[in-house]
UniProtKB/TrEMBL annotation:
The name this protein goes by in its record: Uncharacterized protein
Cellular compartment(s): Golgi apparatus membrane
Keyword Protein transport belongs to the record: no
Lineage: Eukaryota, Metazoa, Spiralia, Lophotrochozoa, Mollusca
Keywords in alphabetical order: Glycoprotein, Golgi apparatus, Membrane, Signal-anchor, Transferase, Transmembrane, Transmembrane helix
Pfam families in the record: Gal-3-0_sulfotr (PF06990)
Transmembrane spans: none
Claim: Calcium is one of the keywords in the record: no
């Protein structure tokens, strides 16, 4: 969506060098914010307009590389659902190889610190959502309530919108309004959706509560921004639900259009 908008409007993207430490071109860094080493400078006479590749949020570096008027957008997923996705697709060695039991995830959750890498930057299961929003290792390690609140408030002040995966269509309609884009600008098709979402083979029914106890910062962040998104939607007024319905219909038409025979050439999407 952001790539399409930038391409259509001849905007400048923040990009990583062609040769970086990661296998995917859409990753700038999984461990730190933007630096001179992990990003390319904009063309002469231009400035960066859009950053939509993966990088850890850092207030100082983002303000160094992005214009002052930048509107910051983030995304969060329900932490336990995110955790299960990590287990399924990344299968961390410190859980699945180091723990030799029939229920390694449950064993891990009894005492995560026993198995976790020393640095949260090297982990995808230690409050990873908060880490990617710029939470420091000392806050994650201490789980101090006051520090967590301070961290959440700092994210709240920096990000104009945090998309909630469980309210994705609502989030995108709100994004369209905040950025004053057209419906065409925000139409998307589902991609990389897991056909088999069954993750029950390696988790126990009680694991959710154990994980919630472990991922305190992630849950504080998610629950705050879930409520904030609901409040933002409520402030939009009655016509928001009408636009949401219209958007869902347009998405359905777009999906049908792009899987239809080539002979159909007129776009069905209204502005």
């Amino acid at each position: 969506m952001f790539l399409r908008f930038g391409w259509n409007h001849n905007l400048t993207f923040v990009l990583s060098p062609s040769k970086n430490d990661f296998k995917y071109p859409n990753i700038i860094s999984l461990t730190e914010g933007m630096t001179q080493k992990n990003t390319l400078p904009p063309p002469e006479g231009k400035h960066n307009d859009i950053l939509c590749n993966h990088v850890v949020y850092n207030r100082t570096s983002f303000r160094k590389y992005m214009p002052n008027e930048t509107f910051f957008v983030g995304i969060l997923r329900e932490p336990y659902e995110y955790f299960k996705s990590v287990l399924k697709y990344l299968r961390p060695d410190y859980i699945f190889k180091k723990i030799n039991t029939s229920l390694p995830v449950s064993e891990y959750l009894k005492d995560p610190r026993k198995y976790e890498p020393k640095s949260p930057a090297m982990s995808f299961t230690n409050n990873r959502l908060a880490f990617e929003f710029g939470c420091t290792a000392d806050v994650i390690d201490s789980s101090d309530a006051k520090q967590i609140i301070q961290f959440v408030k700092s994210v709240d002040s920096d990000f104009g919108l945090v998309i909630i995966t469980e309210l994705f269509e609502e989030s995108i309609v709100l994004l369209r309004r905040y950025l004053n884009w057209s419906t065409k600008d925000v139409i998307y098709l589902d991609k990389n959706i897991a056909k088999n979402k069954n993750t029950t083979s390696f988790v126990d029914p009680f694991d959710r509560q154990l994980y919630k106890r472990w991922a305190k910062v992630d849950y504080a962040l998610y629950e705050y921004f879930y409520r904030r998104l609901r409040d933002q939607i409520r402030r939009e007024g009655d016509d928001f639900d009408e636009e949401l319905l219209h958007f869902a219909e347009n998405r359905k038409m777009a999906s049908e259009f792009f899987v239809a025979p080539v002979r159909r050439i007129q776009s069905p999407i209204a502005n």
